[in-house]
Amino acid sequence: MKRWLFAAALLVLAGYLLGGSAWLRPFGGPIRSEMDRYFIENAQAEVAANNVVTAIVFDYRGYDTLGEATVLFAAVVGVVLMLRKVKG
Amino acid sequence: MSVVVRTVSRVVAPVALAFGAYVIMHGHLTPGGGFQGGAVVASVVALLVVAFGAERWRKWTHALLPLEDVGAMAFVILAFLGLGATFFRNVLAGSGGLFGAPVPRLGPNPGALNTAGTLPLMNWAVGLKVIAGLGAVVILLSLFGREDG
């Protein structure tokens, strides 16, 4: 019973993923470029930065960078926990 | 390692350190930023560990691990600075003060360091975090498996 439930859930998930990949736009065709254009045209005025990539990474999508920093922190904590010196 | 490796790394290490500092400090002008420059500096740590042995760098981890927390805290505090509007709001951009100069016209890297608001400060915070974190990880992993580990 449990195994059948698991298989059904897996099939549903696979169906979603395959359907999603079928809905992707064709490779190499930037059809929806409104957001790109917004960043390129307004980054200098809004963030006052010439480097649009840094403007996106640290301003528009700061949460993403916060997540990256959290991942690095977790990795360092894991390594230190695994390799620390234990008495006895 | 041999005397050749040690001599070459004595020459290369300061240059690579300067390059990493450049990548971090110019993160809001040129390609790169805190993560990339921090990785460059951490590779200097790896070079020194390979050239001079890991044992003499063990005590550095006690200094590097708190520094990583300092970087993370600075990053989050800089994000909280903009809480008057939203989290991660760039409050210093265009304010005329620190890093608040108006940005010059687009061109081949005008190189105005005093722009971009909180972006350079966040680059420094993330750079400090990556330097300390990756450096400590490199040192600890190279010490792993020794008798006195």
Features:
heterodimer; A: 88 residues; mainly alpha; 4 helices; 76% helix; flat; B: 149 residues; 60% helix; elongated
Explain how this protein is built:
The complex is a heterodimer of chains A (88) and B (149). By secondary structure, chain A is an all-alpha fold. Chain A has helices spanning 2-23, 34-47, 52-60, 62-83. Chain A has a domain at 31-88. Chain A contains four helices and no strands. In chain A, α2 packs across α3 (52-60) and α3 crosses α4 (62-83). The longest helix of chain A is centred in the N-terminal third of the chain and has 22 residues, at 2-23. The radius of gyration of chain A is 22 Å and the shape is flat. In chain B, 60% of the residues lie in helices and 0% in strands. The model of chain B has no long low-confidence stretch (mean pLDDT 82). The longest helix of chain B is centred in the C-terminal third of the chain and has 26 residues, at 118-143. Chain B has one domain (3-143). Chain B has 149 residues and is mainly alpha-helical. The two termini of chain B are 20 Å apart. The interface between A and B is large, with 27 and 46 residues.
